[in-house]
């Protein structure tokens, strides 16, 4: 079986992390989420965390030179040999170019860039209701669309659910502006290279997941012909 090197693209709150969890279950691939890597660094108070926090709190992107190095280093680890699911990177065209250069250097190619297309109003609704587990931030809920069984408590490990600091309404609006301005050009970049696949992010998580799986199955079939 060939490698599955995947990128999840889309505005904040589109459902990238939600889909990533399902794809990890399907394909057993390592999940590389740059937002999560940065939040861990902030919590641990590392030099990377100190640098990144200045930008993240305002909803701005951390500079390319800060994020490219740590992401490339993560992709060089042995667990990515069969592929990876990259979430939250690239967020600028320069990051996309750096990723291409690295993949080329190691003789690998991108399988697909999966765009979860979601309009701004829906993003605001999703992010304002997003809650995540204090123990494992991959356990994500929505107060209205995907509530936990007991309010404020994670179904999976019983820990407390909290709102991310940058999920407050004013910061969300700014993150959306940043997305349109700096990240949207990445869509065209992958479209030009023939690897972009679009999904309607307004559908339910299960429908989006079914569509992604069908697309990946077709890609693999084409590859084996
Ligand atoms: P979301 O899941 O809402 O899309 P993330 O968790 O991916 O958000 O990212 C949170 C924050 O971390 C971003 O607003 C940004 O400050 C920073 N960040 C994450 N990935 C990158 C990246 N590739 N380039 C620059 N900044 C990033
Ligand atoms: P991202 O990783 O793109 O920032 P998340 O996966 O964290 O997005 O989803 C943002 C919020 O929206 C979460 O609260 C999640 O439960 C909810 N959500 C995700 N996908 C959908 C969907 N298809 N329909 C409704 N709500 C969704």
Coarse structural class: alpha/beta
Described by the principal axes of the CA atoms, the overall outline is globular
Main pleated-sheet profile: 5 strands, parallel
Q: What CATH architecture label of the domain at 4-29 and 82-119 and 183-224 applies?
A: 3-Layer(aba) Sandwich
In helices, the fraction of residues equals 40-55%
Give the topology string: H per helix, E per strand. EHEHHHEHEHEEEHEH
The mean pLDDT is 95
**Secondary structure tally, helices:** 8
Number of strands: 8
Notes on the protein architecture:
The chain has 225 residues and is α/β, with parallel strands linked by helices. It has a domain of 106 residues: 3-Layer(aba) Sandwich (Rossmann fold), CATH 3.40.50.300. A hairpin with a 6-residue loop joins strand 5 and strand 6. Helix 2 packs across helix 3, helix 4 runs parallel beside helix 5 and helix 6 crosses helix 7. The protein starts with a strand and ends with a helix. The structure holds adenosine-5'-diphosphate (ADP) (2 copies).
Brief characterization of the structure:
The protein has 225 residues and is of the alpha/beta class.
């Amino acid at each position: 079986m060939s490698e599955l090197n995947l990128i999840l693209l889309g505005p904040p709150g589109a459902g990238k992390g939600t889909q990533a969890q399902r794809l990890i279950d399907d394909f057993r691939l390592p999940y590389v989420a740059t937002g999560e890597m940065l939040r861990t660094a902030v919590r641990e108070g590392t030099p990377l965390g100190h640098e990144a926090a200045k930008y993240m709190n305002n909803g701005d992107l951390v500079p390319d030179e800060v994020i490219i190095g740590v992401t490339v280093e993560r992709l060089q680890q042995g667990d990515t040999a069969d592929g990876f699911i990259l979430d939250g990177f690239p967020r600028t065209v320069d990051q996309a170019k750096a990723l291409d250069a690295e993949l080329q250097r190691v003789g690998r190619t991108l399988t697909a860039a999966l765009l979860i297309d979601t309009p701004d109003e829906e993003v605001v609704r999703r992010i304002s209701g997003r809650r995540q587990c204090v123990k494992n931030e991959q356990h994500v809920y929505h107060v209205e669309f995907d509530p936990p069984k007991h309010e404020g408590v994670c179904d999976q490990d019983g820990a407390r659910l909290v709102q991310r600091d940058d999920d407050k309404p004013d910061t969300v609006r700014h993150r959306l502006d940043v997305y349109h301005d700096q990240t949207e050009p990445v869509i065209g970049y992958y479209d030009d290279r023939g690897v972009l696949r679009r999904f309607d992010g307004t559908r339910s998580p299960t429908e989006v997941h079914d569509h992604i799986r069908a697309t990946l199955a077709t890609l693999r079939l084409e590859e084996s012909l």
